Amino acid sequence: MSFPRPVPAKAQSRVIGLVKPKDVMKIFINLKPVDMPEGARFGRAAELVEQEHQDEPMFKHHREKSVETVFFFVLNGKVVRPEQYDSLELKEGDQIRWFMPYAGG
Amino acid sequence: MHSVWNKILRVDLSQGIVKAEKTPDAVYEYFLGGAGLNAYMLWQECPRGTTAFDPANRLTFAPGPMQGIKQTGAAKWTAGAISPSINMNADSAASASYGIEIKEAGYDAIVVHGRSAKPVYLVVDDDKAVLKDASHLWGKDAYQVEDALKEAEGAKFEVVSIGQAGELGVRYANIQTRKKSFLGRSGLGAVMGSKLLKGIAVRGTQRPKVHDPVRLTELSRELNRRIAELDSRQPKWLQFKRVGTAGATELFSPQGNLPIKNYSLASFPEGVKTHHASNYAKELNARPWPCQYCTLMCHNHCEIKEGPYAYEGKGPEYESFAMVGFNTMVSDVKAVAYACELANLYSMDCISLGVVIAWAMECYEKGVLTKKDTYGLDLTWGNAEAMVEMVRKIGTRADGLGYLLGEGTKIASERVGQGSGDWAVQMKGQEIAAHNWRAQYISALNYCTGVASGPNHERGNSQHIWVGHVLLPEWGIDHVSNEDRWSWDRAAERNAKFHDYCNVINSSCHCKFMVFRGYTLTDLLHTINATTGLAWSQDDMRRCGDRITQLQKLLNIRYGWKKEHDFQYPKRFMEPVDEGPAAGKIPIGLEDAIMDYYRERGWDQNGIPTAQKLKEVGLDHLV
Q1: What is residue A43's predicted lDDT score, i.e. its pLDDT?
Q2: I need a labelling partner for B223 at 20 to 30 A (CA). Which of B13, B113, B368, B499 fits?
Q3: Count of domains for chain A
Q4: A2 within some domain
Q5: What was the pLDDT predicted at A57?
Q6: Quick check: A57 and B479 CB within 8 A?
Q7: In angstroms, rounded to a whole number, what is the distance separating the alpha carbons of residues B552 and B453?
């Protein structure tokens, strides 16, 4: 399963530059409020979560080993597939939960 | 409260009397069921001075209100007693279908006390319950007993049973059900054996009423689907339904979380290769073996068709193969699986077994034990044959070392002396599990401060914050950095929250593994409310968990806990490894962290719950 590459940061900043401050919406990632530009796609939230965990050893190990999805996301109770990252539009109040692959006891 | 019967089955083995007894609603509103009910029974009925093998010890088998609600994970149930390894209260959880059957028989718990004059087994068939002669079963292994009871009473009965190790009082003997699920830790099998109770067979046809069946069905349908889908989206070598918990090898290795060579090494490349999930699945021919209603299907059925380790049965979980494999340096995955299954037959906890054998191997390496002591076995690191043979010696309590190792690492090292206590990786009499405190310091804090079942990695499982990035955002644990692994900042708070979370899960009776595939505290709260009608908030749920933790702490104190016990951690805690992701990491500051934990918990500086704390959680009327 290939992990779709998010929009490069430079391109995003150009997009952000065109967004007026009042067009910012609030979504929740693991119950924490996060500001997102209106019309943002799910991939942006996914990228935020990835960036936050860049130094996590399991994450690094997975990325070195394969291109498989490391994080798993649930949006408003429904599982989000990687192929939806670019198309799924976020809305005000959306609840995102993320999980890392885990096994053990 | 819905989804409870307000009824327990009381079994007096000394008098041979079995009768139903009413229990008030308040008990369930306060303690839910499961682990909470176990603790309540001990509090009410086992005074100071009661010991593990005393007939007065209560062995309570308790499902919870979530038992049998057709939601993935709702097959979990618990049992509790005063443990012969830690000499304090302990509870342990298992799954399969036994808890559901107790519920369907019309009981919230089966509470056993006394000691029979001869071996017996109990049969519970809806509202009829009777003790039967088990003399012909004494000396048989746990699986033979399961088969015999099903043959005698009917295939629809669910059974728990013990093997020889339980009869003979191995201090970490367990109780099995369906040949695949075990009340693993803290020696409840030895308690059962001390009562001459060989097994219990239960069958039920009733269904308790839930509060909101429509909402519950909707919730369960959504959760069952979500959890199954999230598991399917994992890489193949991490899918529970393909490899069970064996995926842990590759996840834990880059974190330095594996226990290697009695916790003295950081690296075992051969072992990581052979105990890798893909090799596990291939060599052991693993297939899913799910519990009732479960869509995660983490248990697997294995088959080794030929060779000295041929068997068909339960595949070992991560904790089992980590302690019996990595910790003893045995890389032969078939030998490890076979040894674990032998342990299951005899009824022994694989975690304690792996630690105790590793301790013995280190004794042998250092010349403290010699071939004269080891039955001529060359008990060197990685010697699979010797390791397997030691499992037999311990399970049958062979004279000499086998008997001694059945006492556990603490007693064995005290008796052997010669400095062997320095490598006894245990606390309070119970062996440390397969989560390495060097990978996340909170593991050390957890092991030192656990009250539900001594040093137990799943009674309080705060290591999962880093090991699996399991967070509890509803309770304020929403973000951690990798560096936080080796920080004490907020460790006390996080540890406390995970202890309480475990108590809610083990008292409502749901499987903690669901959280690894996206089951949240919000899901848990909605399910508890829809099932019971309690109308709780997250604060109410946390308070319940806290209440049960406080009660467990009071029980610890009653049965002899002293503050110094929390500080008697293994010497190995402060011995670093010199390579790997956790190189040089030792939990300096642990003592201060324990004191922080006391403060966080509302305990005074001697670790005693204050009157104010007990009032806050509603225990003041009970104490």
Answers
A1: 95
A2: B499
A3: 1
A4: no
A5: 80
A6: no
A7: 9
Nearest-CA distance from A9 to chain B in Å?
22
Comparing CB atoms, the residue among B254, B458, B520 nearest residue A105 is B458
- The count of other CB atoms within 10 Å of the CB of residue B613 is 18
> CB of B191 within 8 A of CB of B41?
no
Q: Are residues A99 and B255, on separate chains, in Cβ contact within 8 Å?
A: no
Cα B424 from Cα B23, distance rounded (Å):
43
Nearest CA-CA partner of B179 in B200, B155, B158, B198:
B158
Q: What is the pLDDT of residues B115-157, one digit of tens each?
A: 999 999 999 999 999 999 999 999 999 999 999 999 999 999 9
Three-class SS of B399-434 = CCHHHHHCCCHHHHHHHHCCCHHHHCCEECCEECCC
With tokens 């509103």, the residue in question is: B29
Rounded to the nearest integer, the mean pLDDT of chain B is: 96
pLDDT category of residue A10 using cuts at 50, 70 and 90 = very low
What is the DSSP-derived secondary structure letter of residue B140?
Answer: -
Nearest-Cα distance to chain B for A101, in Å, is 7
Residue A105, helix vs strand vs coil:
coil
Q: Does A58 touch chain B (CB under 8 A)?
A: yes
DSSP category for residue B335: H
The pair of structure tokens assigned to B271 is 């072992």
User: In sequence order, which residues have a C-beta less than 8 Å from that of residue B426 and are 6 or more positions away?
Assistant: B355, B408, B409, B410, B432, B455, B570
What is chain B's length?
Answer: 623
Confirm whether A104 is domain-assigned.
no
Cβ atoms of B377 and B386 within 8 Å: the answer is yes
Residue pair B84/B190 in contact by the 8 Å Cβ criterion: yes
pLDDT digits (tens, 9 = 90+) for B471-525: 999 999 988 889 999 999 999 999 999 999 999 999 999 999 999 988 999 999 9
CATH homologous superfamily for the domain B7-203? Aldehyde ferredoxin oxidoreductase, N-terminal domain (3.60.9.10)
| Model pLDDT, residue A63 | 76
- B271-281 pLDDT, tens per residue? 999 999 999 99
pLDDT bin (cut points 50, 70, 90) of residue A69 is low
Is 90 exceeded by the pLDDT of residue B565? yes
For B190, the 3-state DSSP assignment is helix
What are the extents of the domains in chain B? 7-203, 240-431, 442-616
Q: In the structure, what pLDDT confidence band is assigned to residue B30 with cuts at 50, 70 and 90?
A: very high
